[in-house]
Design a protein that fits this description.
Number of helices: 3
Helix content: 40-55%
Radius of gyration: 16 Å
Strand content: under 5%
Low-confidence stretches: none
Largest sheet: none
Mean pLDDT: 79
Shape: elongated
Length: 74
């Protein structure tokens, strides 16, 4: 699918050309998922349907956004 990794290479591997903005966004996404997984329903996926899971995910993301400092908001 023409995807490239955004993970820095190990010491014994050849470096992968990864622009800084991609790596920074990857880091932000991983930190967001870590915060969202604090919600038990998101981490364990209690909901049986994809629609219900997306609803809980949106609610958790909204709560996280409201809890974050105002400097991160657009």
């Amino acid at each position: 699918m023409d995807a490239r990794p955004a993970i820095p290479a190990k010491r014994n591997e050849e470096p992968v050309a990864c622009p800084a903005w991609i790596y920074n966004n990857r880091n932000r996404v991983e930190r967001l998922w870590a915060r969202l997984k604090e919600w038990r329903a998101v981490a364990t996926r209690y909901e049986k349907t994809a629609r219900a899971f997306l609803s809980v995910l949106c609610m958790a993301a909204t709560m996280d956004w409201l809890k974050s400092p105002r400097t991160n908001r657009p």
